[in-house]
Structure formats: structure tokens, C-alpha cells
Amino acid sequence: MNFSSLANRLSGQAGGTWNVHYEAVRRQNAGEDVILLTVGTPDQPAPSAVIEATAEALRQGQTKYAPILGTHGLRAALARRMERQTGTPCTPGNIAVTAGAQGGLFFAMLAMAQAGDEVLVPEPMYATYPGVVAASGASLVPVPLPPDTGFQLDVDIIARAITPRTRVIWINSPNNPTGAVYDREAVAALGEICRRHGIWLLSDEVYADLSFGRAHASAWSLAGLPTRVVVSSLSKSHSMPGFRLGWIVGPEELIQRLQGVLLAGQYGGPPFVQAGALTAVTSEFPEIAAMRDTYAHRAAILRDALKNTPGCRPLAPQGGMFLLLDVRGTGLSAGDFAAKLLARGGVALLPCDGFGTSATGHVRISLGAPEGTLREAARRIVSFCNSLPISKLAANS
Asked: In whole numbers, what is the pLDDT of the chain averaged over residues?
């Protein structure tokens, strides 16, 4: 069979990043005792009021087509939310509703970049980013961030990577997988660079509400930058990943262009899902507000439990729902470490080699599990590392 070059390119983008996850799921389904900490799925339930609003919308017959860019009520509520959070004007005309943040990133990139363009992405970067850029036809230019700064945004490094072909600079804060929250001054400086060069600034802010080590700085707050675009969703902030409800915030000209892109690729989203999302963004839920503190607490517990693990070094996240573990001191690659840990210890972690060269030798641990589960996972990780050859650990620590 013959397939398109696009399908062939995208089929190889993820590489072996998810192999350990797939194997762990297979083992779990076979009844094995496996602690799955690979995927960023919150363990908390979605707010009951959101579930009821969604169900009520179904009962009321909200099962027809919705507007391509999203229902006006939801777009207006999201605009008010963004304006409240950033102090920067935002209107329904700045909003397009998409199928999750992943859909938002995909469609926004299709509207901004094309073949012959370059997209600069600081790394480590989330594993789906290369596929999104490839789908647009543009070339992804990774810009490694130094691990010794906690993978913080280095504007000078990014500025040196700009060429006449650079069309988009894509950032993610809080970052997946590192948990770094980018400094407000650095984000502003990057925005000024984008303004001078006429470059789009695409900001993935899906973990913005989970910033606990530093206040989140949204790209939308850069009022002097007309080419700023923010993508977010309710998947992490409200524990609603299965709703596939995300959005794009951008200049009205971009949103108007997205009308045609979304018409071709999505044709609107389920109106009953948008009704539930409207309740989510217009209500205050104590359990949701507490989720950020929960992740901060879990990260602290895991760091403390792993701090003396032979050959390993846990990094302190500033936000999000992951903890990065540097395993280079074990002498194993991240992939081998994760595969052997699963086989011997029954713990599934995500190797980060697919997140960029600067993440080589690190594994990502999801904090989306109860405290007791995380403590048991840490115990198994320590036991596994203690079982590795002492000579290898000594040579690489």
C-alpha cells in the first residue's frame, strides 16, 4: 500500500518514547502489579457540577452541530477568564475552541507556518511537538536549554538561532517534561524579539493553573506583541482530559483564518461538551483550586524519597504534574532504565530521549497518582537502583 509522505513522517515522529508505556499497559491488562506513571492523567475526578451540566445538555438535546469556532457563550467565558488572569483585554473574537490543547496546537501551527519556514522550539519539548510542526510542512529547529539552570528559558540562546526563515517560536510553561516555569522578564524579552522580527510567539499554557514554584507569565499579557498565540485546555486544570476541550487565544485575524482551517479539520466541537466546559470556566471549585497544592506536595514527597537514590538525581519542578529524574549516573540510557525498571520493579516511567537531546538520560514521573502509590513507586525505584552493579554506578556518578 502507498501512503502519503505526511503519514509516513508522522508515523515515525514519536520513535520509542511510548514503548514502555504500551508494554506497561499490556502487563496491567494481563493482571500484573504495575504502577503506571507515564501519562499525565490527573487521578482526581472532574467536578460533579461539570458532569451534571454536560449530561443535562444531552438531555436537552444539545446534540446538533455547534459553531465552527465554538459556542458564543463559551468563547465569551474563556475571553473573560483570560482577561481576568492576565489583565490584558480579550474578546470572544480572540478565541477558537478546539479538541483539546493538542488540537489547538495542531490547527494554530497550520495557520502560522508552512513549507520553507522554521519553528524554533526550546527543548526539552513535549513529544508531540515535532509531529505538529511536520504536519505544517515547516522545519523544527530545537534549541537546547541548559540543564544546570533547571532548563529555564534562555532568550540569548533562542535569539542566536533565529534566521530569515524563522516564522514561529514555540514555548511551553510550565514545561512538560521539566516542570520549569519561565521567568516573566524572560517571556517579555522573548516577546520583544518576536515583535522586532515579525515572528509568531506560540505559548502552550496547558499547565498554567498548576504553577506552584513561580507565578505563571502568560504570553497573552504581552499587549505590545500582536503575534502572540496562547493554547490551553481544561484537561489538567479541571481533570477533564477525556472531554477534549481546548482553545486558541490569538489576534482576531488569526481566529478568522482558523474558521476555514477548523471547518476542514474539525467542523466544530460537541455542544454538550462545551456546555460542561462553560460550567467549568464560570464556577469556582475548591477541589480544583487545591489541585495545584496537591501536585506541589506530591513532587516534594517524591523528591525527598528519591534524593539519595544511587545514580539518580530528582529535579525540583516549579509547576505542572511531572517530576524529572536524571538517571545518567546509573550508566543506563533513559530507555534502558525505564524498560528494566518496568521488568524488575513493576514501575512504568517515561524515557525522555524523545523530548530532545537536552533531556537525554532523564525519565519523567507523573504525579497523577495518590501519595501512597507514589511512595511505593519510589521504594521500588530505589530498590531497583540498589540492585544495579556497584562498579557501574561508581563509574558514572
From this structure: 94
> How far, in Å, CA of 344 to CA of 76, rounded?
51
Per-residue pLDDT reduced to its tens digit, 251-290: 999 999 999 999 999 999 999 999 999 999 999 998 888 9
Which domains, from first to last, does the chain contain?
A: 5-45+288-396 (3.90.1150.10), 54-283 (3.40.640.10)
At CA 253, angle to CA 250 and CA 254, rounded to 5?
A: 50
Strand segments (E) across the chain: 35-36, 95-98, 118-123, 139-144, 166-172, 200-204, 228-233, 246-249, 313-314, 322-326, 347-348, 350-351, 362-366
177 in Cβ contact with 364 (< 8 Å) = yes
Q: Is 182 exposed, middle or buried (0-12, 13-18, 19+ CB in 10 A)?
A: buried
Strand (E) positions, 211-360?
Answer: 228-233, 246-249, 313-314, 322-326, 347-348, 350-351
- Which residues, in sequence order, are CB contacts of 51 under 8 Å at separation 6+? 276
Where residue 389 falls among pLDDT bands split at 50, 70, 90?
confident
Burial category of 33 from C-beta neighbours within 10 Å (exposed 0-12, middle 13-18, buried 19 and up): exposed
Residues 6 or more apart whose Cβ sits within 8 Å of residue 263: 68
State the average pLDDT over residues 352-381: 94
State the cell numbers at 318. 516549579
C-alpha cell of residue 142: 530545537
Each residue of 98-137: pLDDT tens digit? 999 999 999 999 999 999 999 999 999 998 999 999 999 9
Q: What is the DSSP letter of 39?
A: S
Q: Are strands 228-233 and 200-204 parallel, antiparallel or unpaired?
A: parallel
